[in-house]
Amino acid sequence: MKVSTKLALLVGTALIGLLCIAAVTLTQLKQALVEGRQEQIQNLLLKAEHLVLYYQSLESQGKMTRLDAQAAAKTAIGQLNANSKSYFWVTTSDSVNLVHPVAELIGKKSGGNRTTSGDLTDTQAYAQGLATNHIALVDVLIHRTPTSPLEPKLQGVVAIPAWQWWIGTGFFYDDIDAAFWRVARTMLAVSALIFAMVGIMAWSMMRGIRRALGGEPVDAAEFAAQIAAGNLAAHIELRVGDKSSLLHALSEMRGKLRELVQGIQQSSDSIATGASEIAHGNIDLSQRTEEQAASLEETAASMEQLTATVKQNAENARQARQLAALASDATGRGGSAVNEVIQTMRGIAEESKKIEEIIGTIEGIAFQTNILALNAAVEAARAGEEGRGFAVVAGEVRALAQRSASAAKDIKALIGASVGRVDEGTGQVSLAGERMKEIVHSITRVSDIMGEIESASVEQSTGIEEVNRAVSQMDEVTQQNAALVEEAAAAAAALDEQAARLRSTVGAFRLAS
């Protein structure tokens, strides 16, 4: 279907919609006008009713007689004006006119007008309406003038039961119709204007769409369908000077797509060749990477063994240092014991010297005793027989003194020999103390060297652990590289397959007619 046909249908649909809206609106307007008149009649009748009720209240209060009150009420109602086209009238319940703008009709019975439906008289319709409503509203047919034809009129009636009056007023429908047609003409004019504007806009849109499309949408859709089907050799006629329409853009797109597909066809072969070479290279690289990964695994294992060995050496050095420290302590204690022995032997030597001195004293005493015994013997000899016993005693004392001196000499000789041996032992012990000091110094030096060996072993272990971690990281990276190379090889194979599919897909485009 052409764009012009679619737009004509659109405009027709809009026209129908406007007519429907206008019909509904006018119907509602007519109803609103009638309801407005009914409300106006009810207000006027309520006003007249209140006026009559006022005079009834004067009657009930005794301020006026019924006749005076009724006369005053009729005069007041006669002076009320609904408007220039309406008036109030009052009748009795049997239709005798009490108030009417036509003076000749006062006191006469109304002519018995009928309702617009024709089935009831106006009096019957009023009575029927007042039976159920405070104000009865009835459509009746009335002569505007005695010679004029019957016209529909909206009449309203309210009853005054105490006086048996009916007060009424109304409006002819011609003023309602006049107001209705004023609004209707305005609405129809506006609808016609809107329809004209819609038509102009539709015509402008049709021209704009045709100019934007460069032709009918069917032609553009068919041309686009051929391109979508892969027929890049399709051709369409364009208007002279057309450089901005959809068909021109589709034609340009076809040309660009044709050039693009030609380039893709030429490049797909190169991509396939390159992908194949990449795949083979990646396979070779994957094999070499796996070999390198295996070597790194062996290196990592060796480094772990070396790390364990160095740690064991460090532990042995630590234990040797501890043993050297223990030996140094033991040697130190031995040196202390030797020093104590030296001190003890020196004490023995000093005590021996003191004994020699004591023995010397004993020798002196023995010598003196010997001299005294000798003197006693001399004196005993001088005394003769009286001194013979004393001489014997002196002899014994002298003999004891000589033996004491001899024993003291022997003891002194023995003590001298002991002191010599003690001195010799003291020298040997001193020499042993010096050797113990040298041993302690050597053991301390060995302990220091073992500490240095332990520190060096710890540092070496730390360095080897770092090297081991580095080798492990290299191994992990190499494993990852191997996986990446395998993925790259798979990707290259997939790329080769995709290149083949691309050649097959691009081959679906027809580039020449």
UniProtKB/TrEMBL annotation:
<keyword id="KW-0472">Membrane</keyword>
<dbReference type="InterPro" id="IPR004090">
    <property type="entry name" value="Chemotax_Me-accpt_rcpt"/>
</dbReference>
<feature type="transmembrane region" description="Helical">
    <location>
        <begin position="179"/>
        <end position="203"/>
    </location>
</feature>
<feature type="domain" description="Methyl-accepting transducer">
    <location>
        <begin position="267"/>
        <end position="496"/>
    </location>
</feature>
<keyword id="KW-0488">Methylation</keyword>
<feature type="coiled-coil region">
    <location>
        <begin position="286"/>
        <end position="323"/>
    </location>
</feature>
<dbReference type="GO" id="GO:0004888">
    <property type="term" value="F:transmembrane signaling receptor activity"/>
</dbReference>
<dbReference type="InterPro" id="IPR004089">
    <property type="entry name" value="MCPsignal_dom"/>
</dbReference>
<dbReference type="InterPro" id="IPR051310">
    <property type="entry name" value="MCP_chemotaxis"/>
</dbReference>
<keyword id="KW-0812">Transmembrane</keyword>
<feature type="coiled-coil region">
    <location>
        <begin position="467"/>
        <end position="505"/>
    </location>
</feature>
<dbReference type="GO" id="GO:0007165">
    <property type="term" value="P:signal transduction"/>
</dbReference>
<keyword id="KW-0175">Coiled coil</keyword>
<keyword id="KW-0807">Transducer</keyword>
<dbReference type="Pfam" id="PF00015">
    <property type="entry name" value="MCPsignal"/>
</dbReference>
<dbReference type="GO" id="GO:0006935">
    <property type="term" value="P:chemotaxis"/>
</dbReference>
<protein>
    <submittedName>
        <fullName>Chemotaxis protein</fullName>
    </submittedName>
</protein>
<keyword id="KW-1133">Transmembrane helix</keyword>
<dbReference type="InterPro" id="IPR004091">
    <property type="entry name" value="Chemotax_Me-accpt_rcpt_Me-site"/>
</dbReference>
<dbReference type="InterPro" id="IPR033480">
    <property type="entry name" value="sCache_2"/>
</dbReference>
<dbReference type="GO" id="GO:0005886">
    <property type="term" value="C:plasma membrane"/>
</dbReference>
<keyword id="KW-1003">Cell membrane</keyword>
<dbReference type="Pfam" id="PF17200">
    <property type="entry name" value="sCache_2"/>
</dbReference>
<comment type="similarity">
    <text>Belongs to the methyl-accepting chemotaxis (MCP) protein family.</text>
</comment>
